[in-house]
Design brief:
CATH topology of the largest domain: Ribosomal Protein L4, Chain: A
Shape: elongated
Helix content: 25-40%
CATH class of the largest domain: Alpha Beta
CATH architecture of the largest domain: 3-Layer(aba) Sandwich
Number of strands: 6
Strand order of the largest sheet: 2-1-3-6-4-5
Distance between the termini: 18 Å
Strand content: 5-15%
Largest sheet: 6 strands, mixed
Length: 220
Amino acid sequence: MTKVAVYDIQGKKTGEELELNPAIFSIEPKKHLIHKAVLTYLANRREGNSKNKHRTEVKGSTKKLFKQKGTGGARRGSIKSPVMVGGGKTFGPQVRSYYQKMNKKEKVIARKSAYSDKAQASAILAFENFEIETPKTSKFVELLKGMEVLGKKVLVLVDSYSYLDSEDKYTNAINVLKSFRNIKNVRTQVADTVSAYELMNSDVLVIQKDAFKTIEKVNR
């Protein structure tokens, strides 16, 4: 069974090791589902707002400018013709949706595969649940230095807001997120909404100790 070291706020190992759930962190990665999840995520981020006017949308007269024959020039229609300056665009981009659907079970397996891929690469670390009254970036820089991941693309996962049972815990979670947010190459996310794309688009996963329970809940 895969185990990960737990670090304290100073970036030192506490001596504790967490056993990772093999049903999530030790499966054979389904690379085709990871690929599909990444494409779906990126496609659904696209707005599809590019638009050109075609000839029926351009303002202007529909009168034929020149007679069909006898001018010695090329045939042309109205001023809205695509061959005219200021005319409509032929086969130009139109407003469209890039939405792609992915089944819930496929999303879960894709996330499990991403977690397992990181576990196999020894790219998962854990940190203790500590309480901080105000955001303090310097403390978490020391944590990442101690983990020897400062400078790498790090994804920090904290416990989900929906599983916090008090306002104090919620405030603390926000302070932790804000503390990490100002560090270069570090991105933060809550454990129940992270996507396979975000997991794969990082070198190392740094996960809050309590967040492992949330990961198990949402990836059953």
